[in-house]
Amino acid sequence: MVRALYSFLTWLIQPLLRRKLARRAVAEPGYAVAIPERFGHYTVPPDQGRVWIHAVSLGETRAAAILLAQLREQMPGLRLLLTNGTATGRAEGEKLLRPGDVQVWQPWDTPGAVARFLDHFQPGIGILMETEVWPNLTAACAARGVPLVLANARLNERSFVKTLRLDGLARPAYRALAAAWAQTEGDAARLRALGAPVQGVFGNLKFDAEPDPMQREQGRIWRTAVGRPVILLASSREGEEEIFLKEIKALPTAERSRFAINRGLNQSAPGVQWLIVPRHPQRFDEVAALIGRHGFPVSRRSTWGAMPPAATLDAASGVMDATAIDTATLEDRPSIWLGDSLGEMALYYSLSDVALLGGSFAPLGGQNLIEAAACGCPVVMGPHTFNFAEAAELAQAAGAAQSVSDMEAGCRAALAWVADPAQQRERAEAAEAFAAAHRGAGERTARAIQALMAQAD
Q1: Of 206, 217, 301, 428, which residue is most buried, by most CB within 10 angstroms?
Q2: Catalytic residue among 28, 37, 60, 240
């Protein structure tokens, strides 16, 4: 009865979904692509037997890439059906396709759309990444005998409490899964409490990601050329840039002067270069405008040439190359770099001495700190890390991260680290060691999937 009411509501709001997609497509044209696919109507030919992976957005798609590489190694000839839910996820997913693979949108969770999707593709197995458990999708797969698993599964305490409020929908959906492999023991316990058949705790697939070596090398070269410490606000979310910029303005002039190193100022922390990389690309222009409203010159990654602008500073004059900004203004208001590019986080982390973790200074649960650690960039975290609670605790215990109460404390901690090169190097080495120590989830998950498929045959 509960799922019947849910099914009616999901059917009823389909016009609102179409309207939402049209609105989002204004800023992100990818949302206007192949809209009928979301409702179970396809232009690709019908097929059967593919390995279906669903990765809703960018982070899940990157985790899926790690798993897929292991699956292809263990299962030569694998034919992929990839579904995504967001424009960034779909764009990232395109990079994973090989000739003969298929990519479509995730079907909206109405009985009709889900039935058309399963009838059209008849997958041999379905792999949901991390959190994507939908009532009608799981029920339809169980009814058709399609084994549906939850890989790299996570469920934080806050989401668990919310899910319990929908117990009549959630519990049957989790029970309908063929298997779940959790990231942590805490995730496993919460998933089991909802009825999920947890068959292992394999760790986080994202630890297996190898940062792009060319980006890492470029970042290290730039870091040497810049000649001053770089402090990064990484994957920032709405509201965090505002408080970050306010804290920079509130710092003593000697601490935030972008010319401190060249001028040899006597101060506890050297002059630093501040860098912001927003989480969502549609906010790049918004954040650039925000930086300007706070009175800071802004230099966007998209305008850089072979080197960041700070690397072309004329030490004698203290004036940025090809910039007509008054020197006194620059001294009072250091320029802010804006990372307005996609797929270059390894570059930004390798360029930076320390990163403040976006999403953790607002009640959003924090972004993933694993890539920062793998690049040897230690992290300062705000108080909100519930999305990656265990990884945050482990990173802090390893010396790769530090938790603080707010953005002011975060900026102070970051400045303290860059003022002490020996401490910064020690934390950077701890970060890389922490990332290396937790690898192996990809191979474990791929073997479990292969074993489940063999049982199904």
Answers
A1: 206
A2: 60
